Amino acid sequence: MTENVTHDLKVDHTRDERARQNFVSGMRNYVLNGLAAHLRTVYDNKVEPAFVKANKRKPKDGPEVHKAMKDETLFKYYSNLRCNTQEAVWRSVIPGVEREIEDLNRRAQVLSQSTENAQGTLTVDPKFDVPRYVSELDVHLMPGNYHEERVAGDISQGAIYENGLSVFAMGLLGSRMDDITQSVSTYFQMRNPDFKPTRILDMGCTAGHSTLPWKDRYPEAEVIGIDVGAPMVRYAHARAQSYGVTAHFAQKDAEHAGFEDESFDIIYSCMFLHEVPGKNIRNILKEAHRMLKPGGVMIHYELPPNNIMTPYDGFYLDWDAYYNKEPFYKPFRDMDPSDECARAGFDKKDFFYYIAPSLNFYGTDALKKAADEDKAQSDSNVGRFGDGVKWFTFGCWKH
Questions:
Q1: Domain that holds residue 155
Q2: What is the pLDDT of residues 315-348, one digit of tens each?
Q3: Which one of 121, 204, 285, 322 is at 20 to 30 Å from 226 when CA atoms are compared?
Q4: Dihedral (C-alpha) 173, 281, 128, 165: value to the nearest 10 degrees?
């Protein structure tokens, strides 16, 4: 089930490993689609009516729904199965990565040093201090998180992450697992056809799935991805080189990235901010404001905030905060993005958000229709990983 890893760092998983990956992906599909739908039925037909009877009103927010749901047998079963399948994602790919890690590291080094297909650069800081909110967690229950290194020049965490993502995504993210940024960037370009950026920064780039699509949209632009994990930027750079895409990667902290003032036209992140504590998010937004050129734009694909969601949908999305080693997930979703942009120095009137239908699921025509209408209507598919997913994006122009 790692067929979406199509470049020169592909792991040769055994037949048994592939069978296990297919099973895990299928089980996740069942949990996030069929079982999740049944969970909603139990809420609608049993839990909410009981809450209304006892309180003379409906639940006002996600935490009230969570409190009402968590003693339900089905919710316990759902949560247990979802946690187990999440852990099984990583268990299904780690043996192959461990078996081939010496060869993977060698291949990555060769790709990074070659200029035959692409001329991207890689910068790793041997004295880099990984932030504690990364070093003390295994986010997504992934052993080693984004940063752990076992040998010099290690890319194993990048390989585990991308192979695991292929199992995790159930095909929803497309052939290169970059559907989120392909969808978000295409929508943005459709809405802003005259905008011609020359320099683009992707913060928290991990394996580069969120970085390379910007090169598809704007081939003449310089595209840079940064991440705190050295294995991630090593892997991302080698992956880009293998695909023949010139992009630059560096180990940097987005709170103090160190680039010049007013030096980027687009500053972007994808599924990054919700893994960061609130005070650090505010520093990151301020740093983005500092680095943006006048007339530039900050764009973040993220989870939709709770203030645009129904109580049940808020409860459903916030599951990860309690059970998936993502402690900053709900606090982020409780923030108001427009207020946070204003706090960082942006003008509130320049704030925007949009909801981009998945290119991989809906197709180009649906995305163009959404861009033309620009209504940003929220529904239960927004940010919810499953069939029919749509991607919530917010940002601000700098003037």
A1: 1-399
A2: 999 999 999 999 999 999 999 999 999 999 999 9
A3: 322
A4: -10
Specify burial of residue 376 (Cβ count, 10 A radius: 0-12, 13-18, 19+).
middle
pTM value?
0.95
List alpha helices for the chain, DSSP H. Answer: 15-29, 36-42, 48-55, 62-69, 73-113, 132-135, 156-169, 179-191, 212-217, 230-243, 278-291, 311-317, 319-323, 329-333, 337-343, 359-362, 364-373
Per DSSP, the three-state class of 152 is: coil
The CATH number of the domain where 293 resides is what?
Answer: 3.40.50.150
User: How buried is residue 348: exposed, middle or buried, by Cβ count under 10 Å (0-12/13-18/19+)?
Assistant: exposed
> Given strand 222-227, what is the order of strands in its sheet?
122-123, 248-251, 222-227, 199-203, 264-270, 292-302, 390-397, 351-357
Please name the residue that has the structure tokens 């991207």: 120
**Selected residue with higher pLDDT from 147 and 371:** 147
Number of domains in the chain: 1
Q: State the pLDDT at residue 269.
A: 98
Six-digit token string for 253? 């902290």
